[in-house]
Amino acid sequence: MTKHAYMVVDARSTDPERMADYRRLAQIAVEKHGGRYLVRGAPYDTLEGTWQPQRLVVLEFPSMDAARGFYNSPDYLAAREARAGVSDFDMLLAEAY
Questions:
Q1: According to the 3-state scheme, what is the secondary structure of the chain?
Q2: d(CA 77, CA 62)
Q3: pLDDT at 2
Q4: Interhelix angle for 16-32 vs 64-71, to 10°?
Q5: Per residue in 9-66, pLDDT tens?
Q6: Which end of the chain is more exposed for a tag (fewer CB within 10 A), N or C?
Q7: Fold of 5-95
């Protein structure tokens, strides 16, 4: 049985207009690779620790391979290029339990 994978992103940006283009391109790439957004910039509460993401994004993919395929795809490369120079991301990928 293939386990789902979750991508967690802390997205920081200085240019909302360019990030709108990034989000459009990224959504196309996510869907193309079987992913879906679970959280996309929604309000959150920090219950422990000091982590304060500027924009929290959580995605679900059908597998680690699908998530890696998304990240390394030409489609997502175009999205990353759209945000180059105006954003800084922390991103991790975890396999479901």
A1: CCCCEEEEEEEEECCHHHHHHHHHHHHHHHHHCCCEEEEECCCCCCCCCCCCCCCEEEEEECCHHHHHHHHCCHHHHHHHHHHCCCEEEEEEEEECC
A2: 20
A3: 78
A4: 140
A5: 999 999 988 899 999 999 999 999 999 999 999 999 999 999 999 999 999 999 999 9
A6: N
A7: Alpha-Beta Plaits (3.30.70)
**Residue 7 region by backbone torsions, left for phi larger than 0, else alpha for psi between -120 and 50, else beta:** beta
Residue reference for tokens 């802390």: 10
Please report, as a single letter, which amino acid is at residue 20. A
Long-range contacts of 49-56 (CB under 8 A, 24+ apart): 51/10, 53/10, 53/11, 53/90, 54/10, 54/11, 54/12, 54/13, 55/9, 55/10, 55/11, 55/12, 55/13, 56/8, 56/9, 56/10, 56/11
